[in-house]
Each structure stands twice: as structure tokens, then as C-alpha cells.
Amino acid sequence: MDWQGQKRAEMLMQVLLVASAVAAFLAGYVRADFQFMLLVYAAGVVLTALVTVPNWPFFNRNPLKWLDAAEAERHPRPQVSAGAAAGGKKKSGKNK
Amino acid sequence: MHSWTQRLMGAATTAAVLLAAACAAASALDAFHVPAVQAQAHVTKINRFHKQINGNDKVTLTFNVSANLESLFTWNTKQVFVFLTAEYENAKNSLNQVSLWDHIVPDKEHANLQLEVKSKYPLIDQGSSLRGKKVQLVLHWHVMPNAGAMIRNRMMLSEFKLPDAYSS
User: In chain B, what residues touch A30 (CB-CB under 8 Å)?
Assistant: First the structure.
């Protein structure tokens, strides 16, 4: 899942859950049946999980563009200087 | 980093929070529900009135109860517990409450009660103050919801006067 896909999945999850909670509450109230509210809500939660949990192709429409290898070689990583490397190794105290 | 288990956990947590919110809303709506309970109870017979060996007065009664509790039921009502108490004042306590009868109403279809009952529980005083005592019958009900707060209320019904002498 790419960055845009993650954002989209999060949004979808919240919107779908709030919508199913509101719909379930209204349906339960109108039918005067508390259990009906729970059933409608459970259906909404399962649907939301099916839509947002698996890594659907829908969430991979904006793949990350990596630099190609040639471009990376033209801008090498800064090397650690020799002096800093020697200072980092403090093995002398171990051999006392 | 963003794995399917993380998304599942996120969805489950949000779903649980919203379910709690829906339950709270259902309970809040019940607070605006105004029931119109109609009830009457009359003592038809005093079966036995005597003093127990330990010195406490004891009365067994027969009474009529008619109560229409249908208006207590909303979509968030699991059941209604209803009970009838005898309430009186004596030198020892400013309020004595003795439960005489109780009943569980499972649904609206069984909420219209018309009964003649021999008191389920006897009226026993803590002491010997019942002769000639004026006793108030009070109907109490506890509305037990599917989710949220329980609602309690009561209604004063008829008064009756116990005889001045024991019956046996």
C-alpha cells in the first residue's frame, strides 16, 4: 500500500464506520428494535473491514518513484572521516 | 509499516468506540421518554394478623393489582421489574418499606397486569407497631435497558388501615 493508499484507507474506514453507526441507530430506532441496530452495525463493520483491511490494488495507484542506480552513484553518501572513525573505536581499554 | 493487522486493529477500535457512542445515545434518548403509568392496588382481605413469637407483628394480605406498564417500554428496554411495597411510619423509623409482591415484565405484550394476589411476602414489622396503623401501598418500577442507565420510579397507590386487634 502506498502513501496515498494509506491515507485513503484511513479516510474510508472512518467514514464507513460513522455512516454505518448512524444508519444502524436510525434503523434500530425506527423499527424499535435494539437487536436490529446491532445487526445492521455488525454488517457495516464487516463491510468496512473487507474494504479497508486487505491491500487492494485500489490502494496502490501512486507507487513510490525510487531514483535509479546511476542517479544514486552520481550523488554518493557522505563518507565518515578517518579521524571520527578512530575516535569511535575505543578498544584500548579492553586489553588492560 | 502500514500492515493489514494494523488496519484491522484500527478499524476494530473505531468500531468499538462508535458502538459505545450508539449505546450512550440510545440511553440518552430514553431520558426524554415520558411514560404514563396507570396503576391501582387495593387490599381486599387481611388474611392473618398476629404477633410472632419473637415479638414482631406479621400480616398476610390479599390485594388487587391493576397496572398498565406498556408506556414504560421503549426500543431500549430489556425488561421491567415492578414491585409493590407497604410503607408506614412508626416511632422507630420515619419510613418503613416492606415489599409485598414483585414481578418481572419481559415485554410490552405482558405489561398490562390485572391480578388478585395473596401477598407473595408477608408484611412483618420490626417490632410491634402495626395495630391500627395506616399503611400506604406504593408501586415501584425499575426499567432495565439493553444499554445505558436504569430508570427507577414509583407511584403512590391506595392507603389502608390495619385492624386495632390481632386476628388470632
Answer: none
Using the Cβ of B144 and the Cβ atoms of chain A, whether some distance falls under 8 Å is answered with no
Say yes or no to pLDDT of A46 above 50.
Answer: yes
Q: Is there a contact between B133 and B46 (Cβ–Cβ < 8 Å)?
A: no
pLDDT of residue A96: 46
Please count the CA atoms within 13 angstroms of the CA of A62 that sit on its side-chain side.
7
Query: Which helix (H) or strand (E) element contains residue A8?
Result: helix A3-31
**Whole-number Å distance between alpha carbons of B51 and B167:** 10
Whether B97 has a pLDDT exceeding 70, the answer reads: yes
Q: Tell me B94's DSSP state.
A: S
Q: Which pTM value belongs to this model?
A: 0.77
Q: Tell which phi-psi region holds residue B84, choosing left (phi > 0), alpha (psi between -120 and 50) or beta.
A: beta
B6: Cβ contacts below 8 Å, ≥ 6 apart: none
Contact yes or no for A18 and B18 at CB 8 A: yes
pLDDT surpasses 50 at B54:
yes
User: What cell does B125 get?
Assistant: 414489622
As for the ipTM of the complex, it is 0.76
Name the residue in chain B with its Cα closest to that of A14.
Answer: B14
